[in-house]
Fold each of these.
Amino acid sequence: MVGQGLARKVVPDLRLSSGFRAVVCGVALSLASGTNALPAQTPTRASAPAPQPPLYLGTAWYPEQWPESRWDADLALMEQAGIRFARIGEFAWSRLEPSEGHYDLDWLDRAIRAAEKHHIFIVIGTPSAAPPAWLTQTYPETLRVEEDGRRAEHGNRQQFNWANPKYRQLARAMAEKEAVRFGHDPNVIGWQIDNEYANESYDAGTKKQFQDWLKARYGTLDNLNTRWTTAYWSETYQKWDQIPIETKYGNPGLLLSWKRFVSDTWRSYQMNQLQVIRANADKRQFITTNMMGWFDAYDHYTVSQDLDLASWDDYVGEGHLNPVYNGATHDLTRGFLRKNFWVMETQPGFVNWAKDNNSLDKGEVRAMAWHDIGHGADAVSYWQWRSDLNGQEEYHGTLIGADGTPVPLYSEVSQLGQEFAKAGPALEGTGVVSQVAVLQSYDSRWAINWQRHNQAFDPVQNLVAYYGAVRALTNTVDIVSPKVDLKQYKLVVAPALNVISDDVAKNLIDYVQGGGNLVLGQRSGMKDDDNGLQPERQPGPLTDLLGGRVDQYYALLNPVPVSGAWGSGDTKVWAELLSVKNPETKVLMTYGKSNGWLDGQPAAITRKVGKGSITYIGADLNEEQMAAAAKWMVQMSGVTAPFGELPKGVDLYERQGAGKDVWILINFGEAPQTVALPASFENVLAGGDTQSVTLNRFDVVVLKRK
Ligand code: GAL
């Protein structure tokens, strides 16, 4: 899970004939079929699925931990709260396959049938995040090896080696059994593969796969040596098997390659199970995996491209909801597949893994759920339903106590259940439409994090600062990969887009030449696709278009004054000395007196290119300057907003589609606020029509334009 600003590593079949090989992005992995495969169990009867609600309230339920005699009482309490789906089974491998090749899926079927009686749909989690003890004891090579050479052990979870062929074979066979049995089950609506992909392995087999991956990518050692500049420090490789794994201090080309290999390997790990599910399941059953927001162990664009739905686990952890940061995380997830997503897990009040596990305030959980919906979620699901009697997470927030009766938060979640049912028809078929995109790139984030140059330069914080300022004026923002088609956007902001491949450069240049407005932030265009320096100064391949460049970058210890079109302030972390080469390029901001080098020099420059423009900002801007810069960007690019700036603390989310325009307003501030609406709206939750709404702290209003 990843809380706000807190990254926590959780420690925790196409029916195969023989010798299936998956080739994903040059990774060829042998996925030989199981020798122990039993005949598929009888598929569950196929009948017409019940109609699904447009908005889903859900919970993670672990029937395997409780006597079956208790299930009905739990499900009745869920139904009473308006819960419409439960995710089950994602850690139940030892119950599903108690010994090798002996599967028991009957209890899972009974749990699905019991849920069906209470109108609760099921998402099945494949159990590969928690292999049973017999498996890793029989096949110790399926346990992952840490960077220090220590092999993981049973007793936690995520102890598996994601690259190991034997592990993949066993995980695939398990998933296939489930898919054959439940792929046509009317009460099963989807699949979650594994749970929170996180940890890689550093064993010899993985290293060999990495070397093969490098060979497939670079073709020849000469090419690799040139692109990594291995003449430096005698790093030159004469054989593929000389190439090590490095994760922190290695050659930048090696570091980036490892991350790309890790991403491709998670993709093929996922594909291994996805194929057997797709081959056996109805199309209406979606396939997803639960991701972790800004977590950067792998490239989420690489991994999500094969899924039907993006979903993530939204935990605040310590403190309270920061709507801007959390909203950016939703928008990031929405950007993986560029459509609505699910919040597959969220905290029922509090977690157990932060330093101080405070509870969200009364009303905050409900506000947070509507905030999710506003950003394009179609489901919000609480982890977990009931406290486990034992296990690593005894203290975690739940909806039902270990005693089986509701905790105080249950009534707030029940209110949500009613509201989701009421607002569902208004939100059905709607999504978030934006005129502005913020670009996010894993390559760039990794590249900066390996060589921050100033510890205080955090690429995610940097991105969120731009995002927040622009969002405050436009009410919606997309966060997308720099590789997507940008034509639909009037404004594209690229904070710290450090790595720019030839393809990305072309995409950005085409966008500007086609009339788009591109704003590049600090550190953009420094690196090429191998994490090497561009042969031109920043912004590398965009320098000509900009008609200016970065002459030098400076990591700062002391603030440097910066002033101009967006007011006066200081840049604290980073300053880039810009110069102008083209008479059409204008200076927007200038540094004041500081280290001598920067005194009086350009800090932000812009150039009009036909109907479009390109701007480079070399300084960090304080809040007021950032707000002014955002205003300038929005105005010069002609972005229109449904509302624009709102009273302090109030947020507006707009969802459009199917001929509808729905606004969600939430007050996260302390003071009550009144918002005068520009037209008459139907007040979806309260009933009636309205032209003005007053919101107290954590109040939520859902409005449908008439
Ligand atoms: C998630 C995980 C869940 C549970 C939860 C607790 O990361 O997927 O299984 O551990 O955190 O917050």
Note: The longest helix spans residues 252-280.
Amino acid sequence: MKRVLVATGGGDCPGLNAVIRAVVKRAAQEKDWEVIGSIQSFDGILKEPTEIKILDDAAVKGIHYQGGTIIGTTTKGGPFAWPVKNSDGTWGSADRSDEMIRKLQYLGVDAVISIGGDGSQKISQALYEKGLNIIGVPKTIDNDLMATDFTFGYQTAVQVCTEAVDKLKTTAASHNRIFILEAMGRDAGWIALSAAIAGGAEACLIPEIPYDIQKVKEKLDTRFLKGKGFGIIVIAEGAMPIGGEALAEQSVEVGNPNLKLSGAADRLLYELKEAGVEADIRTTVLGHLQRGGIPTAYDRVLATQFGVKAFEMVLEKKFGHMVAYHHPEVVAVPLPEAIGKQNLVNPNSNLVKTAKGVGICFGD
Ligand code: F6P
């Protein structure tokens, strides 16, 4: 039998399980392939004893509508930066990539499918350069990868965020309040923007368009003057005022290089109050509700397309490539073309123009 190993890396994302299931189901149509999963990204291979899971039909039964990932994931470490405790108690890192490749050979792994965001795909490229037969599958709720039209998980996050806007509208209207809803999106404002349009928010503040607090206040004042005594502002966690920066802190998780963003909604509340907005303002931070739970039908379909394509790329030996959606096709793009290029909201794009066309204020 030939073996393909699947790993999920980085933050979880609705649709990961649908990709895993699709890989397994497509592989089952070939007589000579079996699928195994590495637990918590590549940590499962590097740990002693090795932590892997046989991914057969029984293991993936009915998982396409489950959130999370049945093989776990991690944002910490990885084969090139494995956290190591120094003798003085501080943490450093070690490159264990060669050891991991040897272990994969020992386990009889012929190919690897790595499902993850930009950070994970940089690791995929580095492993490919070391000779590993690897295929990338993109994922992130932020939809900020340039090489693919969409990532699975994004539509689910937009749906969750839109439902939150819908719910906040009724309570805001009842109490004549302003609600600030903080959505995920560290560098890209796609979730906030789509949910603001779908939910009919008054303002949408995103990292790509630093805001002028006076402009946001004017929008709210005009609305209150018209007798519509409530308002919803959707703000992406990475948004910032003109001349300011996104609010972030170091992660306390050992080996997690990512900054933890928080505080955008609270800062906006403070700024609005300072600017003289008199209405009662409340904040809601959606956080990981956007990442958990059942993927929408759209995300299940996209994730399934990605899983089937990834396994077919293994059969075609299209290693060093990542699956991507280029409407209406699912294609293979070379990993170097896919990594390090962010898909940010273009302030002059049709989507922003559409939002402005229905009166949404960006604070610009
Ligand atoms: O990249 C996806 C994402 O959900 C971002 O929107 C968010 O800033 C980040 O991950 C949160 O990651 P963590 O759960 O590791 O704090």
Note: The longest strand covers residues 109-116.
Amino acid sequence: MSADDPVGRLPAEWQAALEALGERAFRAKQVFRWMHQRGEFDPEKMSDLSLSFRARLTEAGVSAPLSVEQVHESKDGTRKLVLVAKDGARVESVIIPMTDLSDADASAAPSDEDDADAAPVAALTSRARVTLCISTQFGCAMGCVFCASGQAGLMRGLRASEVVAQVYLAKKYLRPDEQLSNLVFMGMGEPLHHYDETARAVRLLTHPEGLGMSPRRITVSTVGLVPGIQRLGQDFAGKIGLAVSVHAPNDETRDRIIPMNKKYPLRELMQALRDYPLPKRRRITIEYTLIDGVNDSPAQARELCTLLRGLPSKINLIPMNPITASELHAPKAESVRQFQEILAAAGYSCFVRTRRGDEVAAACGQLAMAEDLIKKKREREELRAAKSS
Ligand code: SAH
């Protein structure tokens, strides 16, 4: 139970907490619904609760975990929300309209065609589908050399309440003709680094008394933390979509760009993926950021085919988005085309992820907050160097 994070409590935990306060247990559902179904965190507005009970909730620390500071809209309809936590930490979430169902962003999360058991959103409504990309950490500790968050370093992980609040807040920014279809944990941070908070967030979002999201519409993207992948598989019976940042077909190349590969090399990672209890017809998303001259050669494409053989997967190629903290470049269009062709010819389903939200710095690895953190980190380092000289 997260005693100091009341917004992150599940209904059973609310029940226990309320009983301890001498409140009636059925209030637990009411409180939970206000927050996790209606996205209302202000006890003053929970109109069917008594005034004294609302005051107690306020005393217990129930309040909005995040507030919206800015909304940036890109020409392609992508909206980036800049959110501020109570301690002033800023995170970003990105609303991505799925303009075309073959859109590679959509392929990060399951489509109905992948999963005959999932409730077909298109059948429920004719509203346009939206994918929401949320952050799990303020900065990131993984240090991937091509990623702005990785270069910024980790400030802190988000609490489960802060993770789910991104979803409820973003929903308020959807147009009447839009519907939240898929949720991807692909923003700033490594979701499996703070496994407990991520797992709690998934439990909150999928709880039938709350938003009741289907776990099949949630995808967690990881750099490849093997113990976290194993726990996620066990705790949710493989129902949560898994995306893995592979980015290289061998350890030599992967070591150069993903420091975590030294701890969990490809052999162990691939074994964890093969062991993931995937339901039938579901596939693991393999993310592959193409970097000019590093991992984008035809030979590497062929090696990737060998690495992935036998794994139910779909491949998302992401041409690297440039970041200020790195000398690495975007691949040439010709290399991307060739790479994709080789994978397709070997029978892999392979998409090139189109760049979305670029002019508002909402594209993969570009979240502007991270660039800001890097600047501050550099300033601190310069100050330290100046002091010591
Ligand atoms: N920590 C998670 C989520 C990271 S962001 C993970 O590693 O999967 C989601 C994806 O964007 C990851 O595949 C990440 O490697 C990729 N990415 C990060 N920086 C990028 C950049 N500059 N250009 C293209 N893709 C990038």
Note: The first helix runs from residue 11 to 20.
Amino acid sequence: MTREPPPATAKKLARLGIRSRFDLLYHLPLRYEDETRLTPLGEAPVEAPALVEAPVRSTEIAFRPKRQLVVHCDGLALRFLNFYGSQTKQFERAIEEGRLVRAYGELRPARGGAEMIHPRYRIVAPGEPLPATLTPVYPTTAGLGQATLRKLVQDALEDEAIEDTLPAAMQRRYALAPLEDSVRLLHAPPPGADLAAAWQRVKFDELLAQQLQLRLARRKRREKVAPALPSSGPLLKRFLGKLPFRLTRAQQRVMAELLRDLAQPHPMQRLLQGDVGSGKTIIAAIGCLAAVDAGAQAAVMAPTEILAEQHYRKFSAWLAPLGVKIAWLHGGLPAAARKAARKAIATGEASIAIGTQALFQEGVEFARLALAIVDEQHRFGVKQRLELRRKAELAVAHQLMMSATPIPRTLHMTYHADLDVSVIDELPPGRKPITTRLYSAARRGEVLERIRAACAEGQQAYWVCPVIEESKDRDLQAALDAHEELRRELPGLRVGLVHGRMAPADKAAAMQAFAAGATQLLVCTTVIEVGVDVPNASLMVIEHSERFGLAQLHQLRGRIGRGARASDCILLFQEPLSDAARQRLKVIYENADGFAIAEHDLRLRGEGEFLGERQSGQPLLRFADSVADAALVDAASAAAEELLGGDEAPVRRHIERWLGARSDYTRV
Ligand code: ADP
Ligand code: MG
């Protein structure tokens, strides 16, 4: 290849996901600057960027307010706070040669004319022609200037052909502009050009690549072999015959979907979505029994120790009577017990293993793992999720991922096209509604009164504080302080405390005490956010609720309303509220349904934030947005289905072009 960039530049390009000149073609501008017209100095818009031109008259090093280079031109001063000696010389040469400076920047009125601070500029001969097209501004990374990037892209555009991977008939059917024209136009549009069709084309192709890749992944999975787990084995039959409650219709449907998948000799990858309290745990237990019936093992992973312990207790209560042996691996185990648990898992003596992700991370060996279940998988980081999936794939196990964070339909189409999805869209009967109340922090006294009254009636309450970890905010009240204070304010009440920094054994003991009713008020951080199930708790106070995200508030609120009583969730907020916080609180106040809340959340935060893209550091989609471009997602999905029916080579080329160096789209 000609004109390879030097290694240092190549490294920076790699950071942008550009590994070849070919990738440069699809590195599209964020925006443009209009340098096609000169604005006469007298007419230049004030405080908006403009291109101006003027003869250079003199240079000066000024010291006030700071050391700076001032270049005086006719009617214009340019100021540079950071400058090189070579710059001064460059301007001096321009004066000698009678050349002009052409500067692009924001023009500000100043004494004796106008000034620009740190403009982008060029020295030009009088009458030098202006560019005919807009100047692209590309996404870039530290140390890689626009000028370098522009030159690289331009070279690539000159040397590389842009092949259209879509059949002509498909382009016509979806009314798509040709790819080559679109890409070239987006890099260098004439002023005033309509770019909508070009962007549509690029977005369509990107979404199509995503759909193709996810569908291929799904296909590949179907070719793999996994143990078929019987859906009518003796243990499962016995358990279904004496369930602790009657399954809801939604649970029955989801159970059937799960058991049908597990009975196939191919690895399942199913996402089970169900709002908080919809009863996902029992479905997990049913799946585990299918594995045990096959003489194999199942692993259940939870994001927190507290939740893992709760699962352990629940599974034990349900399954131990059937003679199923369950191992519980947790941080608080003494070395000997830990060793024994690992051994039981390795020999197959334990049929079910329950724990945090340590189950997969610490090299725990399974005798015959057939089903891996990840509970509250949305709580694991993006990287962890991928890792868990990979590990389970290596073990050729079936996978069930459970999530209480509903994913809006559009995101589903884009990010879950490789998964099978089951939804529990119904809550168990007899749930009492939760009343949400918004109280300013000034009403603390009233709130304390409510806690006293509830506990006097034999109910229990949570007091949730914002996370204390690494928090430097002084006004963020630590759970420790809150605990002390509430004990003082509520004499006679038994007040417990649990937070993320406690030793696992202490955490477990605190949760146990609350579950058993030994403590009446539990002061806690968001460690109780996931899964915790104490039906007698009917009151929740969330302090500084303005600091929590929507999904978090919804999850927290889901801890109550699980018993026979109507429940109250009091959101204490500190004034003044930011607009964003006010909007969030309004949504949580007005909505009880997790899907509706997720839709609002997506709208308020945007797709990247919603999906936790921040953690992964890489945008999932560069150009398309599955919310704003929902119609395109549908079209791309249909087109992918169609293309996969044909030749595989163009499909691979298409994926390679758009996916390039990006890891992949298979993120749950
Ligand atoms: P989540 O979906 O949030 O994990 P859980 O599985 O923890 O929900 O269930 C919430 C509560 O509802 C638990 O106490 C569970 O035992 C109970 N439950 C689940 N399914 C039913 C049902 N069909 N009928 C009655 N109670 C149920
Ligand atoms: Mg749960």
Note: The first strand starts at residue 31 and ends at 33.
